[in-house]
Amino acid sequence: MSSIPRRSLLKAAAVAGVAAQFSWVLGREDARAAGASAGGVPARVGWLEPGGLGAAAGSTFGAAWPKGVHPGDQVFALTAADGTSVPVQTWTTARWPDGSLKWTAHAVGPEAAGAERFTLAPGTPATAAKSVSVTESGRRITVDTGIVRAVVSRDGGKLVESVTRDGVRIATDGRLVLLRQSDLDDGDQGNEKWERFDGEISAAVVEQDGPVRAVVRIDGKHRKGSRSWLPFSVRLYFYAGSESFRMVHTITYDGDQNKDFIRGLGVRFTVPMRDAPYDRHVRIAGEGAGFLTEAVQGVTGLRRDPGAAVRAAQVKGEKLPDPATWDQRVTTRMQYVPTWGDYTLAQLSADGFGLRKRTKAGHAWIPAGGGRRASGFGYVGGVSGGLSFGLRDFWQKHPAQLDIRGAAGDAAEVTLWLWSPEAQPMDLRFYHDGMGQDTYPEQLEGLNITYEDHEPGFGTPYGIARTSELMFWANAATPTAAALVAQAAAVRVPPQLAVSPEDLVRARVFGGLFSPVDRSTPARARIEDHLDYLFTYYKDQAEQRRWYGFWDYGDIMHTYDEDRHQWRYDVGGYAWDNSELSPDLWLWYAYLRSGRSDVFRFAEAMTRHTGEVDVYHLGKWAGLGTRHGVQHFADSAKQQRISTAVYRRPYYFLTADERVGDLMHDLVDSDETFLVLDPIRKIRTEPYTPDRHALSIGFGTDWSGLAAAWLTEWERGGPKAAKAEARLRSTMETIAAQPNGFVQGTGLYDLDTGRFAVADKPVVGVSHLSAMFGLVEMCAELIDLVDLPEFKEAWLDYCRYFNASKTEQAARYGQNFGTLLLFQGHSRQDAYAAAQLNDTKLAQRAWAKFDKSDGYTGAMVWDKTPVQGSAALEPGYEHLWISTNTTALYGLAAIQNLALVGDHLPA
């Protein structure tokens, strides 16, 4: 049996070098030779969405390479479709064990703006017309893109001291603002009191210094008086030849949920105002290409007309003619035309924003319009220069707000509120009083009715985080309408370069468990249609059910309530999904094989959410994630299966995103968490006290999370790479050495040696959940990377016997595995074993379990049922058979089975 469908081989062969993508099938030397034959094949690179770079500063993307093809010091050149060489900065993000390149990251600046398609191949990169440079001196870091210069502080409260262009100060005093409220008035007494904290820097370091891309990281806390809290981590990104820069802003909540209520959270800049009031301009984006287009002191609509040319120039944002040339009935009365210095756009929900303005503080606000979903973008300045500013996912992560204050004075103040001070305060209190669930038996009873695993004190937000993305442009003059539309578009959807799916398949990354989308037969087309249906359903449900908000955007719900025609958003463990059974992986594998931008963006939002909000980054549970629940932090099950790096790896390697890199690095020592918290403490039948030299760690959901962090640190060459590699190898060896291998279920782990104790007798400890949180994918990668036949044999045994009959299980292990579930999801293990062992019967069983066991079977009807009228809050549609657990496993099984045993797909 061919381990790869012949049709997929023929299709991939068109881009050459395909054999290397499945080196776990070939012999090791054959695989290396096959990879070398692909060395001359350049990677094909293009923009995810049409329109190219647009107004963005630049783009960074990842490229994957087959094992053994490129040496670790290889340099690359990027060439546009018309043959133009484009300046590119390259660095390594992962290596194969032999030292050859596995993943590389590449940054391009504005010189890539004129092309849609590129090729990336070994060669000498072009030199940028303008290079980005970084100078460090005392307490300042100065970054010069060749167009703008930014001065970054190493201490104090001003993250960005100044942004200048051609010697003109465009913005100063870039800083962070936090408003805290100490209590909530649940009635109508109006007793709220606010206090303001300002960001204070503890450290600033240069992470990259050009020539195309520079990155500065700034860390600190928000401070007022003697109190410092709410840690922040900010990265500033600069590209050569760009007039703009990007900010990635992360906060980690470390307050008391009962008295530290965030009332406002923002990024603030001061913008000098040099021009006459009638030559100062305010531009605020509405939805799509819509804009509020105004001057601080307007000359349009007056009782007397200054002249058509004057009016036209002001609307365009151009310098007005000398007032001596206007109709003097206007010129002599300009002191009576009000100046409008303050503007606010508040997006308090996903469905509406309001815009207002006033002349100055102490006077009433005037409504200036409104709409549905604002872009989160604005501009303030004048004909001699000004600042454009934008907050990504503005309406999706409501409540958000844009403020302009004092534009009629010497300097305007711009604040991008990540949490609007006009919204209700951020309330992170636990949502119920415990309902008497004080003991483990009571908590298990609660689990049996609401599916929530409650435990007093565990429903805490302490240590969860959230990342936001902002962009800023230093303009030499008020931008044209077209330029502003382009800038706003870059805020809404930052342009992203990406390599082709065929290149990713050829490189055989992420275990080689995916192949290009193929609809060449009716059976294949049917599965592809179902995969498309499921993705579209969840994308539509996010909109229909409004799965938006600062803490919620990016997650999806777990289970549907057919009686209420509503997802079970308020029922214990059935609410937010929190990565249960790997929807993150389903989405990323769906993207890897298709290159679809809509799938990428959905997966990107999920990665930003699940890696930050669903995981603890501070405190005793740092490194653990929280099981699905009504609030993302509510459930008392804090486990590796949610924090696992396996869900973050694709986004990191595809984009080189440093923040996600931080998240994965922080997990390297998360084996220490097993000293603090026993994941199965409520269901143990024998006494157990965590012991540093004998920690009970499962070989499934626990070890797969640890292995993912160790693998990532090792291949990235991180500070703890040697330790990570040693931990990987020692745990793989000692899992394989167990009497029943993976079927043993769990082992006693020594934190100092990194090894499991080998049990003295065989045990059968199989759970249907063990392999469904990234273990399948981790084992496929590790077997390809680490030459340990015993580990491979242990994993193949687990793969072969999970879906086997009870009789077959008992014959192999002395007893059967008991009552199991999720056979459809486990069909991909049948497929993997079939490909490895050249076993036709296993391949046939894979498809039988996929289509005729549990999950979405061949009997399922793939249609939409309208929901309208009084049945639901908003009209839309539903599908009563769909649940997120099943969707994730169906998606992964379909994708991997097609890649591994597609030739055995029954007609």
Automatic annotation (TrEMBL):
Q: Which domain of life is it from?
A: Bacteria
Residue ranges of domain PcRGLX/YetA-like N-terminal RIFT barrel in the record? 43-122
Residue ranges of the TM segments: none
Domain annotation PcRGLX/YetA-like C-terminal alpha/alpha toroid: ranges: 494-905
Q: Name one Pfam family in it.
A: PcRGLX_3rd
Residues covered by the PcRGLX/YetA-like central beta-sandwich domain: 132-488
The name this protein goes by in its record: Tat pathway signal sequence domain protein
